[in-house]
Amino acid sequence: MAEHTKSSITIEAAPADVMGVIADFARYPEWTGEVKEAEVLATDAEGRAEQVRLVLDAGAIKDDHTLAYTWTGGDEVSWTLVKSQMLRALDGSYHLAPTDGGARTEVTYRLTVDVKIPMLGMIKRKAEKVIIDRALAGLKKRVESAPGSAGSAGAAETPTA
Hints:
Elements: E1 5-11, H1 15-23, H2 28-31, E2 35-43, E3 49-58, E4 61-72, E5 76-83, E6 87-99, E7 104-115, H3 121-145
Antiparallel strand pairs: 1-7, 2-3, 3-4, 4-5, 5-6, 6-7
């Protein structure tokens, strides 16, 4: 299960603003198309989520799962599956790298998904790619439409499908 899928996007905002949106799990249902509920179950000493329960509805995949989060400084967060109804593994990370003197952020999302039902590796990678691309597009739209962000002029805050 060492195979993973990764993709990157540049967001017109500082890394701290991007991480602020990533860390705000309660608002995921507002900007992600697949997350219908998000509940922080445990936090670390700095108030960051350590365990989060997510109810997912991604069409063919509907799941209620819990993820454990590890925060590395202010520029990386990774997660691993604690429990799930449909998944054997859901491991991923966001890595943020400042560009243009910190005015923009390159976000790299890495993901490995393993479902309990049999699925060809090629189909699994394609599903991972779709999940990543939707998540990055939704994150970019959410961050850039936030008040005070570089891309907020006239942007509407609508959830991605």
